[in-house]
Amino acid sequence: MINRPAAHGNPDSPLTQISDLTAYRHDSGLPIALSVRPFTTLLPEGGDWTWVHLAALPLNYAMEFGLFLWGTIGWWRSRAFDRHQPVQWLLLASSIASLLVASFLKSTIINNDLAWRSIWFAQLAAILWTAAWLQGPERRLRSQPIAFHLLLALGIGAVAWDVIGMRLIRPPLFHSSFDELISPRPDDDDQRRIYKKAAQLLPVQDVIQHNPALHKRIFNFGLYGIQRTGVADGEANLFGASPQDVQQRITALQPIFERPLSPSEIRRRAEGLGVDHLIFASMDPIWIRYKGPPPRLTCRIREPLACLVSVKDIGS
């Protein structure tokens, strides 16, 4: 995320969101591209492999939907399925649109969020149809063959793994490629309290800046804050800024959190990028150096392992 002027009009309207995607982006490419949903990450994408992924789409979706594909087909074939009900047409239309988007479009901005989020509409419809098929007009769960129950057990096991098992793969027990994102940091709770107090005490239009060079996709402003940030991290072009603009902001702000600077220099760098408040935390190199916030700065909001400094108070 990077702080920049919003598009004109209601910021929550669909037209404003579409305008923001098309007119307010600084990169050269479109945010959406044609593609074929890959069968597995183990196979390459593009080129002749596109035909392999296309041929594998039925198997791909059969594996993804599993039990709910079985239930969907059962509901469609049952006499209880009323094709004249508007809600059935709504679910069917949203499912078809969802599958088309998930199968043949992708987002080109960092992660392909479009493909894996758009499938939710088809998944929701499949869940509703399966639940309706199992519940009426006569209950069918116990009468299903062993394959159905195996799919049910597999689905329950997968959910249990997501809820319990995935939370075990984290430091210090295990190391993964997502260590930076999932590792608990000692100042997490204190930063959360800082953002909570800032939401209550500071104007909503203020810009609060953390150390944008320390962690990838830092959690705090997105989950706990209501104010904007000057720049989130090295991937802030996800929200429309150019990579050059993102890097320039990080380059200007990073020294504030990493090396000794005079109060006037800190204020100059922050004000130059429209930052109203700075958050220092115990993981920042400057905090480690001084065993606390930088000297000669006054914390407007203070927790044991985090500190919010108002830029207007620096050097005054």
Break the fold down into its secondary structure elements and pairings:
Elements: H1 14-23, E1 32-34, H2 49-55, H3 57-65, H4 67-77, H5 86-104, E2 105-107, H6 113-118, H7 120-135, H8 146-163, H9 179-182, H10 188-201, E3 208-209, H11 220-224, H12 243-258, H13 263-272, E4 277-281, H14 285-290, E5 301-303, E6 306-310
Parallel strand pairs: 3-4
Antiparallel strand pairs: 1-2, 4-6, 5-6
Helix pairs in contact: 4-7, 5-7
Structure description:
- The relative contact order is 0.10.
- This protein has a 4-stranded mixed beta sheet, covered by helices on one side. A two-stranded antiparallel sheet has the order 1-2.
- It is elongated.
- It is built from 14 helices and 6 strands.
- β5 and β6 form a beta hairpin.
- By secondary structure, it is of the alpha+beta class.
- α4 crosses α7 (120-135) and α5 packs across α7.
- The chain folds into 2 domains: 26-133, no CATH class; 188-313, no CATH class.
- The two termini are 30 Å apart.
The helix count comes to: 14
How many β-strand stretches? 6
Major sheet summary line: 4 strands, mixed
Kindly report the average pLDDT value: 83
Could you list the spans in which at least 5 consecutive residues all have pLDDT below 50? none
State the separation between the terminal residues, measured CA to CA. 30 Å
Lateral arrangement of strands in the main beta sheet = 3-4-6-5
Q: Which percent range describes the beta-strand content?
A: 5-15%
Q: Roughly what percent helix?
A: 40-55%
